[in-house]
């Protein structure tokens, strides 16, 4: 099996940076939400979690 | 094992009676059990000194569905139901003190739109054209054979539906109604706030704020052009007709018969246990009750896994519509239609919904929004001669943050009456002869409607289609579920479709699964 010569950490770096930037952007976005928007998102996440169970009722 | 009945139906609501009549017609030995002394559940009325207010449902929408049902029953609808078309569809009282009657005819309605906002007339015709296309699909859908109604949630059925002619030209409209909320849909046709209110308040029926309500609900207002109907004798005439048909086909109906629980053998329904201890066996049990009542009361001994009760408990109910009924000693001429909307400004309506929905706040009577129904407007026999019965619905949460409904319901109703007297019905307060206030807690007690939400489980996307309780229970064999809790939900047509679907499913299961 050939090797590229790059360390695994180095080849994963772009991905890690994207992930980090995404997390930062997401956090910045979440900080700007008002109470109403937060409630809506919480409710939607709750509904999403419940969906698989509802199918069996 | 010998069974007492082929099918036992718990609850003589519209869904249960529809299923009973269809199954009895096919020769099944059917028993319908009803806890109350009358049929209908949320589609009924009761009599106090000649005043007969509606309990829940207030008009017939989608009348083609009724013709479809009677076609399946091989019976002429006219012999069982006598209804009048409601025109004007309703009266709207605006915040600025003006009011307007909304006619059924599209061109007459266009004139009303022109009077309010001439710039929105084109938008109104576009609205009619677009929603008319969806109406064509609904019309075609109600004419489809029953298995397609039953298979509403199946992909193969949807694929077949998409192959029908009416679907293709209306795909952009369907996307618009399906992907946007009601608020956005209405704003795409109307710029004037009053027109946005007139065409966008139907979310009240879903018990959801307009911004969380499926855009398809815009169809309810449009369907007013197809006709809202009101049966002679009130809405209870519909379940009464269905009960008569079921009995004519040989079904047995027991009123004031309270069911204590469903009898199980392992995970198989074998019948019901009555409150007096009598056990009745059946090959299949149909629960036409709210899913919470089914799982928490009727199946309390089933030993269901914890996730089942958790899921049922967490499935949200629509916002309840607390209500009160009043009998008036003399008719009020200021009531000009079967239904009237006493509205607030759009911003206030948004606040009401947000505060009710998210914060459990009860507004002052003067800040609320009301739907006033006068059953005696179309049928004077629903009140004693010269008198009038009104039924007032308003929007408020089930759990109040600072109050208890049972403590404040009467005072609150009086406050609302005073407000309505001042705002649009002068003389109302002084003519009240009889009053019955029914907060959500009381409705829950009277009709076993979870959280007093007579619109049933919330009609939001995560609670529709496959995410509502199934027609055929996946947890208990031989148990079927009908009514507003199941698909498609919401109102008498929804209950009727569920009854047709359950009957079809049960009859299909008959030879193999239920022998």
Strand content of chain A: under 5%
Helix content of chain A: over 70%
Query: What kind of sheet is the major sheet of chain A?
Result: none
State Rg of chain A. 19 Å
Shape verdict of chain A: flat
Show unreliable segments of chain B. Answer: 145-150
Shape designation of chain B: globular
Number of strands of chain B: 16
- Greatest interface and its residue counts? A-B, 13 and 21 residues
Q: What's the multimeric state?
A: heterodimer
Could you say which structural class the secondary elements and strand pairing of chain B correspond to?
A: alpha/beta
Helix % of chain B is 25-40%
Let me know the largest β-sheet of chain B.
Answer: 7 strands, mixed
Please compute the radius of gyration of chain B using only Cα atoms.
Answer: 22 Å
Give the overall pLDDT of chain B as a whole number. Answer: 86
Give the number of helices of chain A: 3
Name the beta content range of chain B.
Answer: 15-25%
Q: What is the tally of beta strands of chain A? A: 0
Quickly give the structural class of chain A.
mainly alpha
Distance between the termini of chain B: 10 Å
């Amino acid at each position: 099996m050939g090797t590229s010569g790059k360390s695994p950490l180095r080849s994963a770096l772009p991905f890690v940076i994207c992930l980090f930037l995404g997390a930062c952007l997401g956090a910045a976005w979440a900080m700007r939400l008002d109470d109403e928007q937060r409630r809506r998102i919480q409710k939607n996440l709750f509904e999403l979690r419940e969906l698989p169970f509802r199918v069996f009722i | 094992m010998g069974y007492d009945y082929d099918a036992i139906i718990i609850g003589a609501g519209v869904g249960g009676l529809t299923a009973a009549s269809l199954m009895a017609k096919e020769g099944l030995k059917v028993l319908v059990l009803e806890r109350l002394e009358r049929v209908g559940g949320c589609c009924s009325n009761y009599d106090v000194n000649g005043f007969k207010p509606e309990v829940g449902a207030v008009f017939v929408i989608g009348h083609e569905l009724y013709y479809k049902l009677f076609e399946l029953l091989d019976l002429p609808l006219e012999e069982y139901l006598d209804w009048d078309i409601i025109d004007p569809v309703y009266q709207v009282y605006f915040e600025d003190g003006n009011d307007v009657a909304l006619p059924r005819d599209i061109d007459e309605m266009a004139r009303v739109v022109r009077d309010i906002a001439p710039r929105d007339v084109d938008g109104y015709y576009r609205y009619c054209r677009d929603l008319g296309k969806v109406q064509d699909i609904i019309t075609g859908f109600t004419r489809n054979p029953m298995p397609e109604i039953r298979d509403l949630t199946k992909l193969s059925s949807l694929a077949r539906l998409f192959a029908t002619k009416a679907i293709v030209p209306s795909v952009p409209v369907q996307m618009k109604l399906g992907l946007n909320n009601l608020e956005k849909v209405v704003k795409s046709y109307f710029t004037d706030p009053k027109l946005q209110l007139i065409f966008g308040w139907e979310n009240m029926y879903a018990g959801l704020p307009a911004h969380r309500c499926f855009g398809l609900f815009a169809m309810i207002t449009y369907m007013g052009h197809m006709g809202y109907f009101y049966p002679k004798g009130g809405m209870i005439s519909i379940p009464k007709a269905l009960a008569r048909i079921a009995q004519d086909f040989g079904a047995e109906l027991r009123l004031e018969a309270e069911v204590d629980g469903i009898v199980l053998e392992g995970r198989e329904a074998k019948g019901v246990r009555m409150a007096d201890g009598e056990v009745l066996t059946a090959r299949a049990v149909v629960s036409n009750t709210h899913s919470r009542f089914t799982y928490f009361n009727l199946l309390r001994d089933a030993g269901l896994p914890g996730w089942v009760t958790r899921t049922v408990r967490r499935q949200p109910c629509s916002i309840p519509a607390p209500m009160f009924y009043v009998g008036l000693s003399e008719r009020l001429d200021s009531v000009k239609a079967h239904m009237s909307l006493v509205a607030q400004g759009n911003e206030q309506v948004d606040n009401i919904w947000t505060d009710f929905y998210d914060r459990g706040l009860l507004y002052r009577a003067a800040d609320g929004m009301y739907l006033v129904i006068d059953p005696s407007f179309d049928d004077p026999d629903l009140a004693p001669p010269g008198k009038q019965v009104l039924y007032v619905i308003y929007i408020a949460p089930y759990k109040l943050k600072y109050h208890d409904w049972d403590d404040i319901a009467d005072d609150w109703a009086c406050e609302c009456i005073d407000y309505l007297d001042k705002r649009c019905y002068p003389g109302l307060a002084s003519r009240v002869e009889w009053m019955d206030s029914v907060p959500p807690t009381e409705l829950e007690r009277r009709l076993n409607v979870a959280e007093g939400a007579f619109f049933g489980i919330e009609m939001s996307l995560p609670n529709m289609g496959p995410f509502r309780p199934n027609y055929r229970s996946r947890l208990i064999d031989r148990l079927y579920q009908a009514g507003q809790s199941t698909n498609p939900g919401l109102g008498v047509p929804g209950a009727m479709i569920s009854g047709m679907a359950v009957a079809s499913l049960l009859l299909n299961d008959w030879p193999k699964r239920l022998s």
